[in-house]
């Protein structure tokens, strides 16, 4: 999901700690690449394997089982994983009995081909098949390769309680939907993660309650497209029309889910990701306005500022409709920060169309963004039907232009915080200085300030005195 984002940069390649259960003797080394959903899936996998005799380790050399949760969103993401497999090959020389499994989107995309292409791989498991891991591991222990990449119409792992890996004990992800039905022509996700399903609100709330009991202070509700969340007793989103009248009348949509979670836990910060402009309703925006504890931040990928490109991408809205949504957000939530995902150099993108993206950015003035050069993905509608005809250097030049513009806007927005007081949830020590805390404000801006008698997980008011290109600097108010 969307969200490679900051999380991706922070967590790429790190072994995820820690899932420990007394009596477990086997060791699992698990790494996660790509989106927040992958990270959360790794927590689900660690939980399942915790029940199968495995504790996590951060030392690959002592692992009985190495799992890599993979991303297919761009070619580069896949190349990174291939490189990791080379590293595992080297480790296998000193740890010859270790088994290697590939999870996630690359597993789904390449299936059994992985076993032929990468000799080191013993196990290939797609995003909907993690429950089958114990059986698959039995196969592997018996000396056979094992593959399960069956996509499911129901699987939401609602009853698996994820063990929190690499957690700061303050913020946690809770998945609310899986899969995506949107079929943006450039995107591989609908093929690797399957049809969209929503999770029972009861089990979502139970997971949130449990996290709150354990002391977590911030919950991020996750989905490829959270605005499209719809619970009507189970089943695929696309089959809602066929559900009974009662099921339809008592259905819970995303704004209602948000309202339930925020009302139940008024002291807990609620975030969500990712929003899709075509599905984001006024009700969601109004629910955000109603609750102080829902963070005033919307990640709202648009991909392009040109209606004709949006059409080729099969995004279900025009530039004008997107602007109308932005205007509504600004009207109802004047303090809300907004971030984007953009793609430069999509099939047939002209200079004029690229300029439309720049002018949309000028209009919206995003707080931050995640920008990419188009990377053709095998099997997607764009790969099948359109020519990847924008030269690489043009894609890169356009990418650079939007990155520069985003930097300018991002800095200007941060500067506007100077002289204001913001509420910060302390997440840990600043990376650069042990004498400083770091945490984010409601708008998701990183804030750093000198340590006093506060502790991780505290909410504090910070007076902003200065900023760098990505961080607000302040002191206790
Ligand atoms: N709805 C998802 C989007 C997942 S992909 C979410 O949860 O955010 C994250 C971002 O990767 C997309 O918004 C898009 O900007 C980018 N992306 C997806 N496919 C791409 C491709 N083929 N080439 C370049 N960027 C791509
Ligand atoms: Fe991909 Fe579009 Fe869904 S970007 S994840 S197909 S909303």
Structure commentary:
This protein is of the alpha/beta class and 477 residues long. It folds into three domains: 4-148, 3-Layer(aba) Sandwich (Rossmann fold), CATH 3.40.50.12160; 171-415, tm_1862 like domain (pyruvate-formate lyase- activating enzyme); 421-476, OB fold (Dihydrolipoamide Acetyltransferase, E2P) (Beta Barrel). It has 16 helices and 21 strands. Strand 3, helix 3 (75-94) and strand 4 (99-103) form a beta-alpha-beta unit. It is globular. The two termini are 37 Å apart. The protein binds S-adenosyl-L-homocysteine (SAH) and FE3-S4 cluster (F3S). Residues 1-3, 73-74, 186-187, 189, 224-225, 274, 301, 303, 341, 343, 372, 374-375, 377 line the site of S-adenosyl-L-homocysteine.
The total strand number stands at 21
- CATH fold-type name of the largest domain: pyruvate-formate lyase- activating enzyme
Computed CA radius of gyration, to the nearest angstrom: 22 Å
Low-confidence stretches: 1-11
**Percentage of residues in DSSP E strands:** 15-25%
Which properties best describe this structure?
single chain; five-stranded mixed β-barrel; Rossmann fold; binds FE3-S4 cluster; 3 domains; disordered N terminus; OB fold (Dihydrolipoamide Acetyltransferase, E2P); 16 helices; 477 residues
Task: Summarize the model shown.
The chain has 477 residues and is α/β, with parallel strands linked by helices.
Give a topology summary:
Elements: H1 5-11, E1 26-32, H2 36-50, E2 54-56, E3 65-70, H3 75-94, E4 99-103, H4 104-110, H5 113-117, E5 123-125, H6 133-141, E6 146-148, E7 171-175, E8 177-178, H7 189-193, E9 197-198, H8 201-213, E10 218-222, E11 230-231, H9 245-249, E12 252-253, H10 254-264, E13 269-273, H11 282-290, E14 297-299, H12 307-312, H13 319-332, E15 337-344, H14 351-364, E16 368-373, H15 381-385, H16 392-415, E17 421-429, E18 436-440, E19 446-450, E20 459-467, E21 471-476
Parallel strand pairs: 1-2, 1-3, 3-4, 4-5, 5-6, 7-10, 10-13, 14-15, 15-16, 19-21
Antiparallel strand pairs: 8-9, 11-12, 17-18, 17-20, 18-19, 20-21
Helix pairs in contact: 10-11, 11-13, 14-16
The structure holds S-adenosyl-L-homocysteine and FE3-S4 cluster.
């Amino acid at each position: 999901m969307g969200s490679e984002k900051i999380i991706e940069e922070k967590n790429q390649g790190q072994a995820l700690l820690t899932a420990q259960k007394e009596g477990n003797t086997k060791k699992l080394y698990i790494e996660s690449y790509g989106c927040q959903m992958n990270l959360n899936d790794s927590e689900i996998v660690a939980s399942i394997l915790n029940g199968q005799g495995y504790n996590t380790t951060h030392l690959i050399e002592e692992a009985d089982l190495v799992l890599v949760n993979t991303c297919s969103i761009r070619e580069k993401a896949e190349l990174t994983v291939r490189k990791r497999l080379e590293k595992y090959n080297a480790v296998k020389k000193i740890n010859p009995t270790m088994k290697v499994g590939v999870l996630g989107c690359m597993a789904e995309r390449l299936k059994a081909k992985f076993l032929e292409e990468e000799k080191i791989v013993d196990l290939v498991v797609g995003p909907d098949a993690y429950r089958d891991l114990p059986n698959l591991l039995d196969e592997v222990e018996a000396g056979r390769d094992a593959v399960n990449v069956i996509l499911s119409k129901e699987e939401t792992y609602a009853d698996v309680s994820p063990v929190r890996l690499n957690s700061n004990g303050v913020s946690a992800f809770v998945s609310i939907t899986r899969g995506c039905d949107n079929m943006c022509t450039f995107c591989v996700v609908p093929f690797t993660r399957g049809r969209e399903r929503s999770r029972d609100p009861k089990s979502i709330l139970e997971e949130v309650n449990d996290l709150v009991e354990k002391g977590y202070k911030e919950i991020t509700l996750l989905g490829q497209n959270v605005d499209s969340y719809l619970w009507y007793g189970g089943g695929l989103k696309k089959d809602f029309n066929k559900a009974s009248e009662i099921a339809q009348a008592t259905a819970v949509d995303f704004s209602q889910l948000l309202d339930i979670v925020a009302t139940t836990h008024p002291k807990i910060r609620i975030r969500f990701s990712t929003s899709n402009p075509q599905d984001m309703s006024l009700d969601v925006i109004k629910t955000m306005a109603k609750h102080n504890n829902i963070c005033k931040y919307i990640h709202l990928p648009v991909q392009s500022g040109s209606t004709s490109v949006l059409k080729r991408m099969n995004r279900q809205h025009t530039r004008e409709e997107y602007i109308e949504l932005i205007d509504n957000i600004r009207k109802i939530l004047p303090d809300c920060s907004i971030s984007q995902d953009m793609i430069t150099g999509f099939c047939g993108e002209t200079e004029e169309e690229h300029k439309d993206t720049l002018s949309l950015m000028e209009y919206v003035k995003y707080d931050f963004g995640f920008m990419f050069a188009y990377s053709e993905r095998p099997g997607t509608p764009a790969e099948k039907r359109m020519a990847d005809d924008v030269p690489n250097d043009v894609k890169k030049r356009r990418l650079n232009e939007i990155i520069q513009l985003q930097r300018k806007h991002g800095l200007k927005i941060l500067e506007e915080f100077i002289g204001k007081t913001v509420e910060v949830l302390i997440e840990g020590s600043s990376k650069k200085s042990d004498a400083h805390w770091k945490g984010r404000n409601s708008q998701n801006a990183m804030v750093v300030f000198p340590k006093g008698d506060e502790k991780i997980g505290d909410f504090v008011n910070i007076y902003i005195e200065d900023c760098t290109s990505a961080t607000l600097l302040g002191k206790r108010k």
